[in-house]
Design goal:
12 strands, elongated, alpha/beta, 5-stranded parallel β-sheet, 3-stranded parallel β-sheet
């Protein structure tokens, strides 16, 4: 049995023999010598901003705004801590109940080309969005079929090249093909946004292996988009080395939308910190002792 003094933070050991007391002091000293927690050596986490088209962002959570009750948008954005919010052009209508009226000042708008089936249609929507939303940011989405809603990488590459040459900050939504990711970079993409799973599915990182290849070879930020259904999955994406996560359905379908936005914010921050800290290696086929194998009680 041990009692601890709040003044000296030292244990008063009761009922130990002189030999056991000496051994306890030896082990306590060894632990103190090697324990760096609270020493200040690793208290500060150094990070760099997320840079998109020359613009810096401290938040790595991009939030969708597709089908929220407009009255919830402000609270959701504030709880998410996001600095970038996506929207379809049709949601930014200038008539009554424009979503633009509910988004707080200082938020970067990321209009998307949802509904486009070809590169030509995506370019036209992007140009309209630039005028309506007064931003050069655009998320290129091109989908030719309605069942699986998979992005058309070939048309996306065409649209990206045209829009990048016109000065847009192009962030293309893509099927996670590493070769297509390279071609999007060459076309001028400011980031690539591979899907984690089918859009709206909440299934998580079903395309993990291919996203890891993209992350390992990308020279622009990689933002995991679509299919992320839980904060833990967003955290996992960040632990992999993704630069940011885009989420919408998981937040919008939650029972408490602002609270879920906050949960995603915290999970993304935790995943980023874990990635920066350097994750421990995975060991297969055998166990590794968590305590030293020397210095046992004699």
């Amino acid at each position: 049995m041990e009692h601890y003094s709040s003044q000296q933070n030292q244990p008063h050991r009761i009922g130990l023999s002189a030999e056991d007391r000496a051994e306890a002091e030896r082990l306590s000293g060894a632990y103190t010598a090697h324990n760096l927690v609270g020493s200040g050596a690793y208290d500060r986490i150094e990070d760099t901003p997320l840079v998109l088209g020359g613009h810096e962002f401290s938040s790595r959570f991009i939030l969708g705004s597709g089908r929220y009750d407009l009255r919830l948008i402000k609270a959701t954005i504030e709880n998410a801590g996001t600095q970038i919010v996506t929207m379809a052009l049709r949601r930014a209508q200038t008539s009554e109940n424009s979503v633009l009226d509910y988004i707080p000042d200082g938020i970067t708008l990321l209009p998307n080309t949802s509904g486009a089936r070809t590169a030509e249609e995506a370019v036209r929507i992007a140009r309209l969005a630039r005028d309506v939303c007064e931003t050069d940011f655009v998320k290129v989405e091109i989908k030719r079929e309605e069942k699986y809603l998979l992005p058309d990488n070939a048309e996306t590459i065409k649209a990206t090249e045209i829009l990048a040459n016109e000065g847009f900050v192009v962030m293309p939504y893509m099927f996670p093909d590493p070769l297509a990711a390279h071609d999007l970079e060459e076309a001028g993409a400011a980031a690539v946004m591979p899907l984690g799973a089918m859009i709206g599915s909440n299934k998580g990182l079903r395309m993990r292996d291919f996203i890891e290849v993209i992350i390992a070879n990308a020279h622009v930020p990689v933002i995991v988009d679509a299919g992320i259904g839980r904060p833990s999955q967003a955290c996992e994406a960040m632990e992999m080395g993704a630069d940011a996560v885009m989420a919408y359905t998981a937040v919008a379908s939650a029972g408490n939308i602002p609270l879920m936005a906050r949960a995603f914010r915290d999970a993304i921050a935790a995943g980023r910190a874990a990635y920066l800290s350097g994750l421990g290696k995975v060991v297969e086929g055998h166990a590794v002792p968590s305590s030293p194998t020397t210095g046992y009680l004699r």
